Amino acid sequence: MKDNIEILKEERTQLFTDLYTGTIPKRIPISAALPVELMIAYSGKDLGKTQWDREGMKGIYEKSFAITCSDTYPASFSRHPAHFHLLESKSFVMGSSGTIQHPEISGMLPEDYDDFIKNPYDCLMEKIFPRLYPALNTDPIHRSMVLAKAMKAYYDYVEFYGAMDRELIDKHGFFVAPPGSSTGVTTPFDFLSDFPRGFKGISMDIKRCPEKIIAACEAILPLSIKKGTPMNPSPLGANFIALHMGTYLRTKDFEKYYWPTFYKLVHALAEKGQTCLIFCEDNWMRYLDYLYELPQGTRFYFEYGDPKLVKEKLGKKHIISGFYPISYLKTATKEQCVDKAKELIDILAPGGNYWFNFDKSPCSLNTINPDNYLAVLEYVRDNGKYDNAGEKVWTNPRENSIDHVLKDIPEFKSKYYTPYDEFKKTNPAPRPDLDGVIGAKMQQYEDMLFGMLMMMC
């Protein structure tokens, strides 16, 4: 006989299965995550020390679960400190408060564009990473030793949090996408802007070398598709894309530099069977007609803008969320906070294709009143029911998708990434019957290193 937790998990899973497959669910699904910094502060622990030693982390998480009723696992992604410290990182730095920050930095010089266009991954390894991570800017022996320690440190944290997450998900009945069905990537323009050139650098490059920006974005596409392709694509999983620079561009520059490879990336991943969850940072209202052209069932999570306009333009084809101002939870009364939730539900929920979330995760405990946070989520859970549950919103998630995008995009290749088919030419298995098992292991280790390196940029 099923216990209450099993029943709860099945109900939550059905909510998102319906939502992601074009069906109106029983009620509005809730997916709202708390950052690890807030959870540690809520438990009264020291942020810096706790991120390093992870002491009592399971209890810290569970204490924070008391202020939420999210249907999905309510702990969000966090940066791990150890490998960045080993690498002497300039790109992610923990301050004295314990917060890991991303300062404005540029690891690529304007004269590096030609090498970057030739092969972005090679340029990362040879030029950009040694500048962003000075511990790699040394002789080959020390560089290999540092990288080995950094990879061990990174995956120590990944394994610790992965095991804890699985235990808590099962214990509390949260919905979670199938293993290997979720990943993350950035658009090519954002990738170029973030660490290689930085905000200032890319702003100058638009005037100084515009054609090289276009060529660089096209060169990044194979790398982005490689990073954004999960091991196990599923309608319940997603590729998370946070949009950074689009709203800082003039519309004509957006059309020229940002949109073409963004469009190709999302359609190419859809062709591989992967849905994208896109966080529209800042205000994307002037680009809604562009977003409409992305594959049906793409998930959009909006920070600012006009929810009525978004519902009107995107609500029948795409799945939407966001808009609830997280700052309201600090400044308004509980009644006002609940009223704001009512207002947004009335706009965004009719016809389905909606899940509830705030406009962003709270960056710290100081940015919300926990009582208001819980009150809003409880209101949505208890009052966000549909009278027409089970009706279809759309039937074919691939409808209006552009196939054959991939055929025009080169396969990702680099002299610093060796697929097993290449590796075994000089390092064959000792027996033919061992080729399969050895190949799987060798490819796993290659992709583990690739995965860690991509989390550094």
Description:
- By secondary structure, this protein is of the alpha/beta class.
- It has a domain at 418-457.
- Helix content is 51%, strand content 7%.
- It is built from 18 helices and seven strands.
- It has helices at 4-20, 36-42, 47-53, 57-65, 81-86, 113-118, 120-132, 140-172, 188-208, 210-228, 251-271, 288-292, 307-314, 328-331, 334-348, 370-383, 420-426, 435-454; strands at residues 93-94, 100-101, 182-185, 238-243, 276-283, 299-304, 319-322.
- The strands form two sheets. The protein has a five-stranded parallel sheet with strand order 3-4-5-6-7. A two-stranded antiparallel ribbon has the order 1-2.
- Strand 1 and strand 2 (100-101) form a beta hairpin.
- The radius of gyration is 23 Å and the shape is globular.
- It starts with a helix and ends with a helix.
- The mean pLDDT is 95.
- It comes from Acetobacterium bakii.
- This is Uroporphyrinogen decarboxylase.
Strand content: 5-15%
Major sheet strand order? 3-4-5-6-7
Major sheet size, sense and barrel closure: 5 strands, parallel
| Helix proportion | 40-55%
Order of helices and strands: HHHHHEEHHHEHHEHEHEHEHHHHH
Could you say which structural class the secondary elements and strand pairing correspond to?
alpha/beta
* Coarse morphology: globular
Number of helices: 18
Number of strands: 7
The residue ranges in which pLDDT falls below 50 over 5 or more consecutive positions are: none
Radius of gyration: 23 Å
Average pLDDT across residues?
95
| Spatial gap, N to C terminus | 48 Å
